[in-house]
Amino acid sequence: MSGAPFAAALLDPGRPLPVEITSHTARHPERRFAVYRNNVTASLIEALRARFPATEQIVGEDFFAATARDFVRAHPPRSPLLMRYGDGFPAFLEHFPPAAGMPWLADVARLEAARTRAYHAADAVPLGPSDFAAIDPATLGTLRVALHPSAAIVRSPFPVVTIWAMNSGTAALGPVDFDTPEDALVLRPHLDVTVTRLPPGAAAFLAALRADAAIADAAVAALADDAGFDPTAALALLIGSGLATAVTPAPEASP
Amino acid sequence: MATNQQRPLVPAQAGIQRPHDVRLWSPAFAGMSGGWTDLSGNNINHEIRMTFARSTLPADAGVGFKPQHLDGLLADAAPLGFVEIHAENYMGAGGPPHAMLAALRDRYALSIHGVGLSIGGLRPLDPEHLGRLKTLCDRHPPASFSEHLAWSSHDEVFYNDLLPLPYTAATLARVCEHVDAVQTALGREMLLENPSTYVLFATSTIAETDFLREVARRTGCGLLLDVNNVFVSATNHGTSAEDYLNAFPLAQVKEIHLGGHAETRDDAGAALLIDAHGTPVADPVWTLYEKTIARTGPLPTLIEWDNDVPDWPVLRAEAERARAVLRADVAARKDAA
């Protein structure tokens, strides 16, 4: 019924109308079929616009629409869950020749993709300062920390948080040093998605915790990643941000 | 902006208009065929069908839910009867979408309206997607579930539009199989909606009204009558909306949709209406609606406004207009009795 010729012609304007398509006015109603072609392509571009607003702000509407159209035709969605559509858009941008002059653009898009995933991620009740206050400081280093299901880290050799913030209305415009690497923490501890610029080494610290390392071992990994790692700042982040949902003793310390 | 000094040359112009029917809101399925014994559809297992939960939306006005209207809906002193959501927007694991639904369900009956099942598709329904739908209906049990007489997926690609199908004995059997699979998986009656269409199939052999009547008869599903779609399709195909409604199996209708359309021109310069959902309901559609309610009695009636979404008071007033038609019909029937 929904024949292959109809489907193929939707995303390829060069293909002829399926032979069985007709109308009461014209035997080969190109303009009528164009309504479907337009709906498909334009609605998918719109889905990408909704997910990547800062990326669009940076490149402008026309550039974004043309880029998104190329992405839609090359990589149409494989699922009706459009909240996931565009997971591959950052990688597409990275290899999109017209965007070669903006090497940081793909990372801004990665940050935006992570925000949508955080928005729809599973809910969990974060631990607060009082939960941490109950912990014996002597055992702190041996503990494992479960991170919130919404937590995502985006590491970039470019100032991705600064560029994103300036193009999403959350920071004033100002000079940008494009050689400054930045790591972003994307998190939705309750209903609002937050984006935080991580201090040096913290991304490695959190990645180690996510891989089930004890806090002390995660700190060692973070120092190896960046000699500027500050364990106190990292712990403050863990305690104050709503990033942790459970703290458990190391397996060997279990009764 | 901070970075536009590095903006490269803009690629070739897209030449693409705004979509006519964006069913997204920004942040921004099992292929069982229970009861079938033959594809003529005359031997459906009625014991299975008897266990389906029936659609129980109130015969009142409702609106398609948009997050920007949450506060207005929750503060409404004379709340409408129901809200309708597009199922696929609520298939994430958690977050604000589910929190908003939980808040709404304290005050409003819920209608879950699927836009991604591809009921009219060539392939069996996607069991993974049917499973997601079942999960959603279990988490937020709706008063009604509905989907479209259309397809949206082919060869694993999702086209995000409600695409038309020819009406033949083969497509009828397939649609019945899909409707039956949905009802069996959800344990619920589903409502099937008549489409807006822009083209015809030379291969069609069955009238749309007969097709829908037969799907309802074979599967026991209900129907969702979109009066704007009736007007749009009749205009687009040079036929009579009144004749369509006269031929429609109104006894199976359990919900009505009303929405705005846009107008353009076809290849021959004839009027071509687009189911755009971006404007108020057109006057001729209100007239068709009033005539329909006069025949059916009050039915749950949804205002759909998906593009250029107005502020809550404007949408609320549009829903109130439908409510007035429903109340006038109740009064007229009392007077007659």
Molecular structure report:
The complex is a heterodimer of chains A (255) and B (337). With 255 residues, chain A is mostly helical. Chain A has helices spanning 4-11, 30-51, 53-59, 61-74, 89-94, 105-120, 129-133, 160-166, 202-210, 215-225, 231-240, and strands at 21-22, 144-147, 152-156, 182-187, 194-197, 244-248. In chain A, the strands form two sheets. A three-stranded antiparallel sheet of chain A has the order 3-4-5, sandwiched between helices. In chain A, β4 (182-187) and β5 (194-197) form a beta hairpin. In chain A, α2 packs across α4. Chain A is elongated. By secondary structure, chain B is of the alpha/beta class. Chain B has a single domain (33-336), classed as Alpha-Beta Barrel (TIM Barrel), CATH 3.20.20. Chain B is built from ten helices and 13 strands. The relative contact order of chain B is 0.14. At the A-B interface, α1, β1, α2, α3 and α4 of A face α3, β5, β6, α5 and β8 of B. β1 (21-22) of chain A pairs antiparallel with β8 (200-201) of chain B.
Record the SSE blueprint.
The complex is a heterodimer of chains A (255) and B (337).
Chain A: H1 4-11, E1 21-22, H2 30-51, H3 53-59, H4 61-74, H5 89-94, H6 105-120, H7 129-133, E2 144-147, E3 152-156, H8 160-166, E4 182-187, E5 194-197, H9 202-210, H10 215-225, H11 231-240, E6 244-248
Antiparallel strand pairs in A: 2-6, 3-4, 4-5
Chain B: H1 46-49, E1 61-64, H2 70-75, E2 82-86, H3 96-104, E3 109-113, H4 127-139, E4 144-148, E5 151-154, E6 157-163, H5 169-186, E7 190-193, E8 200-201, H6 208-219, E9 222-226, H7 227-237, H8 241-247, E10 253-259, E11 262-265, E12 271-274, H9 283-296, E13 301-304, H10 312-336
Parallel strand pairs in B: 1-2, 1-13, 2-3, 3-4, 4-7, 7-9, 9-10, 10-13
Antiparallel strand pairs in B: 5-6, 11-12
β content of chain A, as a range?
Answer: 5-15%
Proportion of helical residues of chain A: 40-55%
Task: Tell me the series of helices and strands of chain A, N- to C-terminal.
Answer: HEHHHHHHEEHEEHHHE
Strand order within the widest sheet of chain A? 3-4-5
**Shape category of chain B:** globular
Strand order across the biggest sheet of chain B? 1-2-3-4-7-9-10-13
Q: How many β-strand runs of chain B? A: 13
Biggest beta sheet attributes of chain A: 3 strands, antiparallel
Structural class of chain B comes to alpha/beta
What does the average pLDDT of chain B come to? 88
Total tally of structural domains of chain B:
1
Which pair of protein chains has the largest interface, and what are the residue counts? A-B, 82 and 81 residues
CATH topology of chain B: TIM Barrel
Main beta sheet of chain B: strand number and arrangement? Answer: 8 strands, parallel, barrel
Subunit arrangement of the protein: heterodimer
Q: Supply the CATH superfamily name of chain B.
A: Divalent-metal-dependent TIM barrel enzymes
The rounded distance between the terminal residues' Cα atoms of chain B is 69 Å
Structural class of chain A: mainly alpha
For the record, the count of structural domains of chain A works out to 2
Keywords (chain A): DNA-binding
GO molecular function (chain A): DNA binding
Pfam families (chain A): DUF2063
Protein name (chain A): DNA-binding domain-containing protein
